[in-house]
């Protein structure tokens, strides 16, 4: 993973193929005089990630060293902070006085208002250990993008029967002196004075966030057989390019072999920067920091049509997804609904009933509360078809339709065995909901074929109803059986499921906000806390 121009102070153990994905972003964690531990996905083992520097003789240290972590919305990233009073120069922690600790997730920190979380320290029975403040800040140069356009002038003629067909290849330089390709322009046919189309790319891809790092550009003449002829090359940097169109950004294209052979060789033409426009990409965290999750409610609404033999799969799917989403909800109160059952006392069939038995207030306290309501409902209701999805989709859509200013975003979690009795109505409901601030996650449990769920997912063919296509893709379907660990490691199964099922949520969220021109709320002003016996302020 690139460090976006900031130095990583530690790495996390061995390579983990499950983590080898592009992170949603990078965040910078600031803590005080402590040791940070992380856990690998599906592992309970704590591994030391890094330590702050030591500040002498103060109960309110303000530390400079930061921890650079990759942030994945779709993963539960557990963190542990241990604080010590440093008594010697030993690196052995047992040689120092333990002051307290906290456990949290990176999602909790990011999901806190302004990316600032304050927690009481624990770990020493019967003793008040003070508080710790943890802040998360997105590394800004991770999300800069740049749009550039170039033209060529008097490039060397390479083709026998015609002019050259030139294109550009951009390389960023690596720390070890090697180069990595990062962009190719299109080919402009039969033209020694080409104007290439403008292109946009992330700054981190161009120079790894280092504005002075060398960027090498090679110019080639395209050949049909793939043996493209080298015309020449030039070097620049992001800082030079950022000057925009000027005499500084007209580059001589040099062919080293020609230069070595011909005394009168000047160049093989020139390449000129026509335009340069830098931009900051609005990211998921901008909305989170501005207070979105605190009004967001993101309700993992649990829909269950199940038999007793599938209990574990339902519970695991609910817990895996719900425990991550709840970090982004301020009050942790979730409405949990069931469908496809006969309800007591009169046995009426319902496709939209409160799992906790209270239709006036279907909210449950946290995912544990949803789990408890789920278990209790199994004892009181009789599972019964038909299985209709549309009523509960419409239920959540009614909430979403009433709040379209971007202050809240709803996530509907459906756990199902794949049976659906109202396919046409469900498609209509999804098409209608696609223009609302909501996403739908469907987890299929059990051995059934899930053809209908795959159709609702719309990844291959965008879902439509009565000639109308869904405005955007809001449904993500996964079959739970694809994530079950063969060794019986349920923690790993749940982590794999959550990773895939939640990966699309930030992009779905951003697509709604951007198409409606909704900007992130401003980050709240810095909070000045009252004095504490032990205060870790950044």
TrEMBL record:
GO terms for molecular function: calcium-dependent phospholipid binding; metal ion binding. Keywords: Calcium, Metal-binding, Repeat. Gene3D superfamilies: C2 domain. CDD domains: C2A_Copine, C2B_Copine. It comes from the Eukaryota. Residues 521-532 have a biased composition (Pro residues). One of its GO terms (biological process) is cellular response to calcium ion. Belongs to the copine family. This is Copine 8. It comes from Cyprinus carpio (Common carp).
């Amino acid at each position: 993973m690139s460090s976006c121009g900031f130095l990583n102070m530690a790495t996390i153990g061995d390579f983990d193929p499950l983590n080898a994905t592009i992170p949603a972003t990078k965040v910078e964690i600031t803590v005080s005089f402590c040791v940070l531990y992380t856990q690998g996905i599906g592992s309970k083992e704590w591994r030391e990630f890094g330590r702050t520097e030591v500040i002498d003789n103060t109960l309110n240290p303000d530390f400079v060293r930061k921890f650079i972590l990759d942030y994945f919305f779709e993963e539960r990233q557990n963190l542990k902070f241990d604080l010590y009073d440093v008594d010697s120069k030993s690196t052995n922690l047992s040689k120092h006085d333990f002051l307290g600790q906290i456990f949290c997730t990176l999602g909790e920190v990011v999901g806190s208002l302004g990316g600032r979380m304050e927690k009481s320290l624990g770990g020493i029975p019967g003793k008040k250990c003070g508080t710790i403040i943890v802040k998360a800040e997105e590394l800004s140069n991770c999300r800069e993008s740049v749009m550039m356009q170039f033209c060529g002038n008097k490039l060397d003629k390479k083709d026998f029967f015609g002019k050259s067909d030139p294109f550009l290849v951009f390389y960023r330089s690596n720390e070890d002196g090697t180069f990595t390709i990062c962009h190719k322009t299109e080919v402009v046919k039969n033209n020694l004075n080409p104007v290439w189309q403008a292109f946009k790319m992330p700054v981190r891809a161009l120079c790894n966030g280092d504005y002075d790092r060398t960027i090498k550009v090679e110019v080639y003449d395209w050949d049909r057989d793939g043996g493209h002829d080298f015309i020449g090359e030039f070097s620049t940097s992001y800082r030079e390019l950022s000057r925009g169109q000027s005499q500084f950004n007209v580059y001589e294209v040099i062919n080293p072999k020609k230069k070595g052979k011909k005394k009168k060789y000047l160049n093989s033409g020139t390449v000129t920067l026509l335009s340069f426009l830098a931009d900051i990409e609005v990211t998921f965290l901008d909305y989170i920091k501005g207070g979105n999750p605190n009004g967001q409610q993101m309700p993992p609404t649990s829909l269950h049509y199940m038999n007793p033999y599938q209990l574990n799969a339902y519970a695991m799917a609910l817990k895996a997804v719900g425990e991550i989403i709840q970090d982004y909800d301020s009050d942790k109160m979730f409405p949990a609904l069931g469908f496809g059952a006969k309800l007591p006392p009169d046995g009426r069939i319902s496709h939209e009933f409160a799992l906790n038995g209270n239709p006036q207030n279907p909210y449950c306290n946290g995912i544990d509360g949803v789990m408890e309501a789920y278990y209790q409902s199994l004892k009181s209701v009789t599972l019964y078809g038909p299985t209709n999805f549309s009523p509960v989709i419409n239920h959540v859509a009614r909430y979403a339709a009433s709040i379209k200013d971007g202050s809240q975003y709803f996530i509907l979690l459906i756990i199902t065995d794949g049976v659906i009795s109202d396919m046409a109505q469900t498609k209509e409901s999804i098409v209608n909901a696609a223009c609302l601030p909501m996403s739908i996650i469907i987890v299929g449990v059990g051995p059934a074929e899930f053809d209908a769920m795959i159709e609702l997912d719309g990844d291959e063919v965008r879902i439509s109803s009565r000639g109308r296509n869904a405005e955007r893709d809001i449904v993500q379907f996964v079959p739970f059986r694809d994530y079950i660990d063969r060794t019986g490691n349920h923690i790993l199964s749940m982590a794999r499921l959550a990773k895939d099922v939640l990966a699309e949520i930030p992009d779905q969220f951003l697509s709604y906000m951007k198409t409606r021109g909704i900007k992130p709320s401003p980050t709240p002003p810095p909070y000045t806390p009252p004095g504490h016996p032990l205060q870790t302020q950044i």
